[in-house]
Write a structure and sequence with these properties.
Elements (H helix, E strand, L loop, with lengths): L1 H6 L31 H8 L7 H9 L1 H10 L21 H10 L5 H12 L9 H6 L6 H27 L7 H13 L17
Length: 206
């Protein structure tokens, strides 16, 4: 719980910039903008230390890439937590996976940026996922589906634990269970993480 409060600046210190990721501009999944990529979304992603390339940003805001993303976003559930979603909402045939593939295929975007942009648009369904969290979890072959199974196991026990942790830390409900999970894992490992050398811990427990 201490790591969560530190990250979101609830203990008197400065919050990490990532604390603004889901809240900047009212959130990426708010009514009216949930199905389009906005300039606020692109700035919000920067709060997590990545940047969407300039040409890709323009294409998302004004070009055909934005049109394709909007079509896919309309097919991705906005108001359901991953723990209560169907596996079909996350598998290889899902609109979420197609949106991720579309972003990942753009020049200089790759999987980390693609995932963070989707997490901004669907924070309850799609988790933030980067190299630090991947390392902690031992590089799972299918992170979305593995996490989905973990959240649903034992009567959604992990999901409830994350919600309880959020409440005890004093965070608003706009911070999703997925984001709580991400922050806990990232805060517990980011200082020790060393690319290409760190073996990770290989666990989904919090």
């Amino acid at each position: 719980m201490g790591n969560l409060r530190e990250y979101f600046g609830l203990d008197g210190g400065a919050a990490f910039t990532g604390a603004r990721f889901e809240h900047l501009g009212g959130g990426g999944d708010r009514v009216g903008v949930a199905d389009v990529v906005t300039a606020e979304d692109l700035v919000a992603v920067q709060m997590l230390s990545v940047r969407v390339p300039r040409q890709v940003s323009l294409d998302l805001l004004e070009g055909d890439l934005g049109v394709q993303m909007a079509k896919l976003l309309r097919e991705i559930p906005r108001d359901v937590d991953m723990a209560y979603a169907d596996a079909a909402d996350l598998d290889k045939e899902s609109a979420a996976e197609q949106a991720w593939d579309l972003l990942d295929a753009q020049d200089d975007v790759a999987w980390v940026i693609a995932g963070k942009l989707l997490a901004r648009k669907r924070p309850r369904l799609v988790p933030v996922y980067d190299r630090v969290v991947r390392c902690v979890l031992g590089s799972p072959s299918s992170f979305w589906l593995d996490l989905h199974r973990a959240l649903r196991a034992d009567g959604h026990a992990l999901h409830h634990e994350l919600i309880d942790l959020r409440e005890r830390a004093g965070l608003p409900k706009t911070v999703s269970a997925l984001r709580v999970c991400d922050v806990v894992l990232w805060m517990g490992h980011h200082e020790d993480h060393r690319p290409l050398r760190c073996p990770g811990h290989g666990t989904l427990s919090v």
